[in-house]
């Protein structure tokens, strides 16, 4: 951190990303209990106290929408809660019909509590800001029919506004309250006032777009996916989805621009940060839609090459879409490429390679090598044009020299 600050880098810290201490799960079921509010606040207090003079941006929780669905509906993420017939895996504990909603409710209350702590005790001295991260995708209606248009709006209400609307306006979307009913926790008047306005900025993770059409609301017991009552596909020509995920999905930079502008129009042009973009595999779709297999972007992201020209094209187009949004008045303050280096992925371990820097996991010393996308991104940040072919030749020469 000291090196980053001395180099003029603004430090962004995320307090929580799917890493709940096991002891809290064992003691009181983690995010399913309101007891976690005090523990999360105590943890945040330590972080603010120890690092607040060096951190300019705080993100409380990463993707409450994905975290709750993956952990408490599909059962793919720790602690692996789900109930038949909704789980992707065979779970021994859980209730997919109610637990995702309880988990998000407690995450929102915890966020609000931590935000209040930061604003009252640390913000003046630290001069930082605090927000949350939400997983987003742009949704196009499959047809212009009334039911598909309503389904597309309902999809965003369940995925995005489930998290953001309470933090800006103090309550859940009305359509969720209508469909989920008593399974959706209610905010007391005091809680509503606490969560309302507890954002200095919106953090969004965004990779792709989907086409959405209406799915009749099922009778009997439902989970989050059934409550949302939509079908989805990667393109208009895709066949109706089954239990297995489609094999590919293309980039849609326009979708990021539309998503940014949509959030700005909905939430009063709050400062927005694109906290994740650029990953070439889309593993969160199984959590959200109940796939039994991962969803790949079609870029061949298991290819361990350093000559990732497709990644450069992706970054160029998506960054360009952000520029268009800014020119249209969007209050976008920052952009992060995911990821800096090849990292551990929750569903595939180290089997996928999508970092700007390649890591050789076969070598115990874990050497790193800049991919072509890293060279391009460095040039972009320095505001200079890059001859990609020359860079490709340089990278190939380096590769031959190492061999």
From TrEMBL:
Gene3D superfamilies: Glycosidases. Keywords: Glycoprotein. GO terms for molecular function: beta-D-fucosidase activity; beta-galactosidase activity; beta-glucosidase activity. InterPro entries: GH (IPR017853), Glyco_hydro_1 (IPR001360). GO terms for biological process: carbohydrate metabolic process. It comes from the Eukaryota. The keyword Glycoprotein applies. Belongs to the glycosyl hydrolase 1 family. This is 4-hydroxy-7-methoxy-3-oxo-3,4-dihydro-2H-1,4-benzoxazin-2-yl glucosidebeta-D-glucosidase.
